[in-house]
Amino acid sequence: MTVDKELEKLSRLTPPAPDPEARTRALAAAMQAFDAAGNNTTAPQGNAKGWRPSSIINWIWSPAMNKKFLAGSALATLLVVPAASYLTFELARNGKPTVGQEEIAASRSKNDAPKPIAEPVPQAGGPVTVAPPVPQTRPEISEPVEKPAADSAQVLQDNEQRAPARSAESLLSDFSSDEISALLNKSDGSDRGAKRAAPTAPGMVAQGQLLVEPMAVAPSPVPPADGHAQIQLDPDRERFANAAANPVKSVATDPVSTFSADVDSASYSVVRRSLTGGAMPDPQSVRVEEMINYFPYDWPGPDNAEQPFKATVTVMPTPWNHDTELMHVAIKGYDIAPATAPRANLVFLIDVSGSMDEPDKLPLLKSAFRLLVNRLKPDDTVSIVTYAGNAGTVLEPTRVAERSKILSAIDRLEPGGSTGGAEGIQAAYDLANRAFVKDGVNRVMLATDGDFNVGPSSDEDLKRIIEEKRKDGIFLTVLGFGRGNLNDSLMQTLAQNGNGSAAYIDTLAEAQKTLVEEAGSTLFPIAKDVKFQVEFNPERIAEYRLIGYETRALKREDFNNDRVDAGDIGSGHSVTAIYEITPKGSPAVMNDDLRYGAAGRAPTTTSGNSHQGEIAFVKMRYKRPGEDKSALITTPVGDGNAVASVDAAPQDVRFSVAVAAFGQKLSRVPALDTYSYQAVADLATASRGADPFGYRSDFLGLIRLADGLSQR
């Protein structure tokens, strides 16, 4: 401000008039100095021969550089700059060099031979010829041909006359005004303050990179005409454990249904991830029983731990088929009071391989385990083993009383390396054995995206390892994270054979549900090898179809074989199984009576016809933790279990039936082709009931998403 004021004052002053005498004195002094300099000048600079001494190399090099090579550099600049501009727009628009489908077709129609992206620019020492890139073939690069400098200059001059120059205006004409505007306004989002990085032109490489060979350019994906883009997960990288939907079976030939308990909930979370991401889920990812068992239900439970289960059976009309009925079997496990829960010895087996370096993988995993640690009691023990190529112990067995030490070890986890899961599993079980708690809970909690690619990585090899370790009384929980390469099939294999369960964590809210709100059922088992067997009365029922449990099917003889492994149930867990049954004489019967079979034979009776009027007979087998001999629970099903209408069924029964209908529609079960998503939503809305955590409200939102996506 001070300088501005001084300048303003000076601008108002009147400049002094020129002094003629001072001007004369100055001119005289200048002329005198000029004359003195002329008198002192001797011989001119240089030599007598008239040219400056110089080497023969400079004599040849200077004219070439000043004329022809200077022109060549200018030509190279004219070619490279437009090409770089072209790829700048391409990379900004698509993230990689792309060629549209129409351009490829036009190019092939003109000439079957592939065209180079840009004319090669010859350099001193001889031109280098590069073969054009051909898809799925390695291009050949010819050897440099040495030529004299004079010949090189001549070749360069000829190329200057032939080389076409493309202006920036012609490059910009390849893009519409909307595309250019979108590119200029595009923001990275991760670093808004950073300068925009300049992409590299086709046929060139970024600074600091070495071009080994030209790459074939893939066409860009064409967006849908309606402007709606759906997320499509790579089916080759995500593996799901599922099987074809259970068929309708005739009671005359196959009256007994046997299956293992399933308390997993991973499928529901995977379905939710797909729908909220704007895509219908892969039918193979839908396991209906896991969707049903995802929700908490208020089934009546046992009065004491002596009998760990109680079964409640309801027979009701089928909402999607008026000629059939549903037999709804609800099992509730005994809920251990937190104060009486046994001590826990937990080993966190955490995948820190390079594939876990995504926001919904390792960062979410660390937050989830922090929630679990804050839920444990001070006397519980936590150990941490990581694996990425090689397994390592991050935290030796530590009491939860030292909570800050455990949380600090979790926070230090960083991703990197390949996935050697088998070695990590071995190390985790060894650590669990060292800190084993007798009459307590000993469990390995494996957290991974399932991408096992180092060491014994086949499902069968890892299954064998888990089967050997479960004999030591150490259970397994598998937590899946992330998308893109989720190995759900392996997760299910490990959980089923490790006396454990599997869950998929896609959000922190899901981690809260699985590891905090349902910590008792997740960590504390009340029974293992739980099996179900249902026998239908051929006098009352003609056909049946089990909804879900395709991957849990057992042979009839497996039910009484205690050596056959089955699912486990934790404290307070609920298990629901639903059969669609066809009464005798119903027009919905699909199988003809057997000509020579026992279709008309009366069922075996006992004295007093004790089973007269029964529809079915439900049996359950289970083993207590630490025991090898199973116990049996039986429940007959009769007319007293039936209700006259859907609305007369208990509220939780109706809601679970709505979930079963939704899962079957996503699985594309033909029996529900005529039952709309709106009908599913109406049934779920009418039976939503108490929803303290909002799970059922979220389910209604998923139905609406599926309805909208299915109409595209």
TrEMBL record:
Residues 1-11, 140-149 have a biased composition (Basic and acidic residues). InterPro entries: CLCR, Uncharacterised_YfbK_N, VWF_A, vWFA_dom_sf, YfbK_C. SMART domains: VWA (SM00327). Residues 345-523 form the VWFA domain. Residues 120-129 have a biased composition (Low complexity). Coiled coil: none annotated. Residues 1-21, 98-171 are annotated as: Disordered. Transmembrane segments: none annotated. It holds the Pfam family VWA. This is DUF3520 domain-containing protein. It comes from Rhizobium lentis.
